[in-house]
Amino acid sequence: MQHAANTAQAEAWNGYEGTHWAAHQDRWNAVNAGFDTPLLTAAAIRAGEHVLDVGCGAGATTRLAARATGPTGRALGLDLSGPMLERARELAALEGLDHASFVHGDAQVHPLPEGAFDVAISRFGVMFFADPAAAFAHIAYTLRPGGRVAFLSAADPAGNEWLTALTGLSDILPVGGFGSPGGPGMFSLADPATATAHLTGAGLTDVRAEHVEAYGTWGADAADAADFLLDSGPGRHLLAQVDPPTRTTARHRLTAALTRHHSPGTPLRLRSTAWLLTATRR
Ligand SMILES: C[S@@+](CC[C@H](N)C(=O)[O-])C[C@H]1O[C@@H](n2cnc3c(N)ncnc32)[C@H](O)[C@@H]1O
């Protein structure tokens, strides 16, 4: 069957958003690394296994997977962002992980061999699919029989303190565009019934969704975190729609809102929630 590519996502992640993630991969990793333990525990990667990391970005979880497989296995990161993959390759080389490799492709259409992988993982790289049925079927196809899936996808929007803080600026910024549960965007899999239906529809079995939450580090303090958030792809898009004085007000108000989450002398940490989706290929 011929499936369409994810053109809008390719544009975003090869444009400003992907460049921001690549340039600040250490900061984005600090935002999301709190979810690594549940993800890797669920994936239960063993020495010698072959792992596919879907939407791997700058490859933080691909490198963790490669450490788990050891040199007798391999970890392949798949992503449609050129800037993020360039960073991923540099970082894997710096860590001497020769058995971690990266491929530029769209998970909906990129040709993957049948039954090639023992495990497919993803840290927030499976929720942007324009055609999730195609993407998950494709991922299932590339797993060996008995192969496992462990994916993280964003859960309820209200469970994300960064988004609640941004939404507090709705009277001066056109906050939106993050999507809503079930719709396109980062919350496409926020309804666990939708997420598990996609995995079941892909022919996977033992499908489960476990609610997990983690704190991520967003900055050295509230002002730093506000700048980071407003300079990211979505933040910059919001600021571009208002005049300079409103941008300044937005920075001040976001800093004030984030200060509530800050204890002096510690980094600014915010809670996020996710679904840990697990399944097995028959
Ligand atoms: C939120 S970022 C997460 C990146 C990385 N997994 C991490 O945890 O740092 C989402 C990633 O999914 C990738 N992505 C989105 N749609 C994709 C698709 N159809 N195929 C492959 N990658 C995709 C983006 O390019 C981006 O790198």
Q: Structural class of the helix and strand makeup?
A: alpha/beta
Which ions and ligands are bound to the chains? Answer: S-adenosylmethionine
Q: What is the molecular shape?
A: globular
* CATH topology-level fold name: Rossmann fold
| Sequence stretches where pLDDT stays below 50 over 5 or more residues | none
CATH superfamily: Vaccinia Virus protein VP39
Helix coverage percent = 40-55%
| Helix/strand order, N-terminal first | HHHHEHEHEEHEHHEHHHE
The averaged pLDDT comes out at 95
Please name the CATH architecture. Answer: 3-Layer(aba) Sandwich
β-strand number: 7
Strand content: 15-25%
CATH domain class: Alpha Beta
Radius of gyration: 19 Å
- The largest beta-sheet arranges its strands as 3-2-1-4-5-7-6
Number of helices: 12
